[in-house]
Amino acid sequence: MTTPLPFFSSRRLYAFILLCCVGLLSYALYTQYYDGLHPCPLCITQRAFFAMMAACALVAFILHPHQRGRYIAGGLMLACSIGGGAVAYRQVWLQSLPPELVPACGPSLEYMFSNLPFGEAFQTLMMGDGNCAEIVWTLWGLSMPNWSMIGFIGLGLAAIASALPMVKR
Question: Structure pTM?
Answer without folding.
Answer: 0.80
